[in-house]
Specification:
about 230 residues, mainly alpha, Tetracycline Repressor, domain 2, about 0% strand, elongated
């Protein structure tokens, strides 16, 4: 899959950027950041762009050094390999999207609205980071050993954050359905948005999230009642 880590056309990226909402950036900026955090975020941003353009296998630490403006020696001082950079990109994405989700869910009690909130959070967050979404989708099998295990654990945690919401909704509506199939179907709908989303055709990320929520919920509500 790593050979597929290439950027989509620039027109589609502009559409995604223009469609980003302020909610994600406002919640993200609320997190305290040290000078090191800001520097790290900038390096990861450059690394994401390089991995997106060249793919993980095609990118080199020298490419990352040129893009970030950091000397090659300095880059190796903080990051012993490009694998560590890819790990940090993925870790940052999953921890951030889950932090945003917890913040959005804390005052929401209705099971259906909580599922809609999950979908909205995912769509808005990842469409605000199209290059990172491509890297996450196409380089998901690269990390090995402990780094890979840690990211796999974060992925399971994110999966269960969705599965738990679906399970509560299932009980609330007395639905007779395969919860795992429902969750995996939902992720199938929202994990590849970067390959087709276009602001002019699909509306803003919030509008798109509402439409995806409506389609998904109509589907599971058609399941037999217990």
């Amino acid at each position: 899959m790593s050979q597929l880590g290439i950027c989509a056309n620039i027109e589609n990226e502009r559409s995604i950027d223009m469609g980003s909402t302020s909610t994600v950036s406002e919640l993200s900026s609320a997190r305290p950041a040290t000078r090191f955090d800001r520097r790290l975020a900038k390096i990861l941003e450059h690394a994401t762009a390089i991995f997106c353009e060249k793919g993980y296998e095609g990118a080199s630490m020298r490419d990352l050094s040129r893009a970030s403006g950091m000397s090659l020696a300095g880059l190796y001082y903080y990051f012993e390999s490009k694998e560590k950079l890819l790990y940090l990109i993925q870790k940052d994405l999953f921890t951030t999207v889950m932090e945003l989700l917890r913040e959005r869910l804390k005052d929401v009690s209705d099971p259906e609205v909580r599922v809609r909130t999950f979908i909205q959070n995912h769509v808005e967050f990842f469409l605000s980071k199209p290059k990172a979404m491509k890297v996450l989708s196409h380089e998901d099998d690269v990390l090995s050993d402990e780094l890979g295990k840690e990211i796999a654990a974060l992925k399971r945690q994110y999966y269960h954050s969705c599965a738990d919401l679906i399970e509560v909704l299932k009980r609330d509506k007395n639905l007779d359905l395969n919860s795992r199939a429902a969750v995996m179907s939902l992720f199938g709908m929202i994990n590849w948005l970067h390959t087709w989303y276009n602001l002019r055709v699909d509306g803003t990320p919030r509008v798109l999230a509402t439409e995806i929520s409506d389609i998904f919920l109509r589907g599971i509500y058609s399941a037999p009642r217990q």
